[in-house]
Amino acid sequence: MPGVTAADLNVDLRDDSLTLTGAVASFEGPEEEDILIEYEVGTYYRQVSLSEVIDQGKIDAQLSDGVLRLSLPKIEKASPRKITVKAG
User: 6-27+34-71: which CATH number, 1.10.3660.10, 2.60.40.790, 2.30.110.10, 1.20.1560.10?
Assistant: First the structure.
């Protein structure tokens, strides 16, 4: 997400849907002229449906140098264990 700052990035989770929006403001002054443009000014938008295997409480987002890294950990499956039977 080149040009997006953490303040201009919104990550929203609702009803198993993860929505990412980010805004890139114009960095030019009124008297400046384009010579080379590496990325466009405007709004980023992406919406992703999450499955039930994602642990939504542990989702993490990090933005560094224009790269957004989302961590979507899976829910841990119940591991087999022996249950002690109590008499009485």
Answer: 2.60.40.790
